[in-house]
């Protein structure tokens, strides 16, 4: 299963800590620990649109605070840095696929009812 992770490489400021806290389930001391030890701040399943939405919010918050971070795509066998543009495009593509699935489902349900 492919996961997307984000690791912060900036110094933590109070604004940055609050942004991270808002988008993760971590406490402030945990956030500081994750930052100082290069532990991912958030890890989401690539196909979970709700979690990807939360990750996008975190990324946008980090960008707004001019934080230095890296996004990784990883599986059991590999770990690869994911360019920000690729992450944003894949997020949009994932959302479009989910919408297409819902429309297809609605069409199939209508056909079954006839």
In a nutshell, what does this entry contain?
The chain is an alpha+beta fold.
Q: Could you please describe the fold and organization of this structure?
A:
- This protein has a 4-stranded antiparallel sheet.
- The longest helix has 30 residues, at about 85-114.
- By secondary structure, the chain is of the alpha+beta class.
- Helix 1 (about 15-25) packs antiparallel against helix 3 (about 50-65) and helix 3 (about 50-65) runs antiparallel to helix 4.
- It is elongated, with a radius of gyration of 17 Å.
- It has a single domain (about 5-114), classed as Ribosomal protein L7/L12, C-terminal domain/Adaptor protein ClpS (Ribosomal Protein L30, Chain: A, 2-Layer Sandwich).
- The protein has 4 helices and 4 strands, in the order βααβαββα.
- It has helices spanning about 15-25, 30-35, 50-65, 85-114; strands at about 5-10, 40-45, 70-75, 80.
Primary descriptors:
single chain; 114 residues; alpha+beta; Ribosomal Protein L30, Chain: A; four-stranded antiparallel beta sheet; 4 helices; 4 strands; 18% strand
């Amino acid at each position: 299963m492919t996961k997307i992770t984000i690791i912060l490489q900036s110094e933590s400021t109070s604004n940055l800590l609050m942004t991270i806290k808002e988008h993760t389930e971590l406490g402030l001391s945990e956030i500081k620990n994750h930052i100082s030890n290069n532990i991912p701040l958030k890890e989401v399943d690539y196909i979970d649109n709700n979690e990807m939405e939360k990750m996008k919010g975190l990324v946008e918050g980090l960008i707004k605070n001019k934080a230095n971070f890296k996004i990784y795509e990883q599986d059991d066998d590999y770990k690869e840095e994911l360019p920000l543009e690729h992450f944003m495009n894949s997020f949009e593509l994932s959302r479009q696929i989910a919408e297409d699935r819902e429309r297809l489902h609605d069409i199939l349900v209508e056909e079954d009812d006839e």
